[in-house]
Fold this protein.
Amino acid sequence: MTPNTLRMAMGLLLFGAAPAAVTAFPQQAFSDNHKPAVEQQVEMEPAPAAEAEPPAAGELEPAEQPVAAELSIAEIAAADGNFEILTAAIEAAGLTEALNNSDLSITVFAPTDEAFAALPEGTVDALLLPENRDQLTQLLTYHVVDGEVFSSDLASGEVETLAGAPVTVTVGGETVTINQANVVIADIEASNGVIHVIDSVLLPQ
């Protein structure tokens, strides 16, 4: 599937019609190691067993899951207790089918329940109302970029989202921020892309 066909498929699933043109990623937002999704060939090997260590104070503890790369992005979100609000939002926006689509290759910056809870009171409830579905869809697609983008692929710069507006990536030492959100868990591989967990909801400018 070519990138243009991929974008069209995602657009049809998200909006029921062809999406507005999505520009290509600016090169300054990626390191020299990045390759387009169609060129990446990642061999999955089972990680060696290791004893679990308790998370440090303030550190997000991901839920135990089956082999992540065998699950879709929507399935991983639904199986992880940290993404109950995100899962409800995906369902309310009618995006579950899109995020289960095995023909797609996308990257999702996934806000935790705590990130959604930090929004002004009543915001989440309002977004989940049927009459606000378009606004919710715009918000969610602002968290999605085309292709598999691993943390090692990122460099400081702007990256276009499927909402048609860019996010600003800042890479410094061991930290990565997307706009003002911190990436707290990186590179969760799914069958149709990659998830990076963030601690704030990204709001389109």
